[in-house]
Specification:
- There is one protein chain.
- 93% of the residues lie in helices and 0% in strands.
- By secondary structure, the chain is mainly alpha-helical.
């Protein structure tokens, strides 16, 4: 289960980064903001999983 969540976090980060870059390239502020938000979600999910791993070991 933890691997699934870690993969989901990484996917969110990558998708967010791509959306943000695409938004900047075409000058779409809304897409840029959505990308940044998605990246932040991925970062938060990854931090949560790392904390869980630390507590388990």
């Amino acid at each position: 289960m933890a691997k699934n969540q870690k993969a989901k976090a990484k996917t969110e980060q990558v998708k967010g980064k791509a959306k943000e870059a695409a938004g900047r390239a075409v000058g779409n502020e809304r897409m840029t903001a959505k990308g940044a938000t998605e990246q932040s979600k991925g970062d938060a999910r990854q931090a949560k999983e790392k904390a869980k791993d630390t507590l388990r070991h």
